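Quick check before the chapter quiz. The format below is the same one you will see on the exam, so make sure you can read both the input and the output lines.
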Amino acid sequence: MLEKPDLPDQFIIDGVQAAYGLQVARVTFLPIGYDVNTAVYRLLAEDGGDYFLKLRKGDFNEITVALPHFLRTQGIQAIIAPLKTRRGLLWGSLDGYKMILYPFIPGRDGYAAALSDQQWIDFGAAVKRVHTAQIPPALTSLIAQENYSPQWREMVSSFQAQVETTDFDDPTAAKLAAFMQAKRAAISHLVARADQLGLALRACRLDFVLCHTDLHPGNLLIGNHEKLYIVDWDNPIFAPKERDLMLVGGCSTWHSAREEALFYQGYGQTEVDRLALAYYRYERIIQDMAAFCEQLLLTDEGGEDREQGYLYFTSNFSPDHEIELAKTIDPF
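Here is the expected output.
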């Protein structure tokens, strides 16, 4: 979220104190992240402690905090576990938001700083530990299973039909509609190809592992002493390992063969299914498109987030960006 929610700082201070018993001296809104339903803050406590607060509105699944807490207890140091409230919970509530508190780790994300060779190796090793983690039944029951659902593809097709017949008063929505009209053939091909690959994968019966599902550069934090962390566990799923591996070598920031080789040096030798890799690269683009269409075509709210959403949508079609990179792995 790029624009600060309409929540007074003192209201946040009081809520954190009530839930966590933390005396907060200063609250600073951080205009970062792609999720328009999540606002983040840096909190400075009166005793000098430094904290990172996530406020999330809308749907909330406790697995988003329970899973990283569990993985950290298993010794995966690349995970930042949420702190517990005074009641022993991993989240608190504040005026329609869920509060999740972490220690604040100064650093840069993977967009702001290129990973070193050792960090690429460490990244691969951390992902392998996630993929091979033994998850207890109590948590397993809360984690979704991949079913190659056409949900996002159907949404994009529906939005494509909408922009062909609707006039939008909002300038950002109108601009997106015009862009989608110009790219209708490319968008239709994306949806159709992902449908074909999804049907093929249903018959493959690939092994499922625990996946983070959103391992883009923005969800890597390079902290003190160049230590690397994987953040944002909002949508874990049991799926083929390619669900996570598809962005390594397959996004506009990470497409170096050398970096990919370093990652697999840490991850270990493994056979990667090209059909699954292609499917997930296409599906990731389609899911992002659906989310930005929801943001821009169904509402005129969001301020600065709207223009940023438009830029994210259109950048997929730029040379050497996501769509072009996805096609390079497609076996057909």
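If your answer matched, good. The first strand starts at residue 24 and ends at 30.
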